[in-house]
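Q: Sequence in, structure out?
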Amino acid sequence: MTIDINEDRRLRDIWRKYKNRLASFPSRGLIEHEMRVNQLSLWDANEILKQEIRKIEYQRREELTKTRILVRAEKKIQEEQEKKENEEKRVQAAEKKLMTRELRKVQLVESPPPLRRSARIHSKTSNDPLTSYKRGSMYTKTA
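A: Exactly. Output:
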């Protein structure tokens, strides 16, 4: 099973740590030098090196697997929290929209105040003989 190390920063750090450990292993020339010093055969030296590499790779896989399980659990919890927050925001937006609709209905039911009419127009359109227009105001004649 492949592990995506770009899934989280911690996975990349683990991968880098073990990559550097594997890169620090001696090259073939150093192995041959140690063979001469320690009187080992080439096959024995390579086997020891292979075993060490396998051990380090096994440790890397184990640590990556454990960390990946933790990362996925954290992401799952975070996604659930975000889902709850989004649901709450959606419910609040729906309630706010409903309140504004109700407010509009209430405002439509209330009749607006009557428009202010000019005294000149009122005097022209009124059937009342006591009204007359004088300097923009409406006066009633007191008989």
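The chain has a mean pLDDT of 79.
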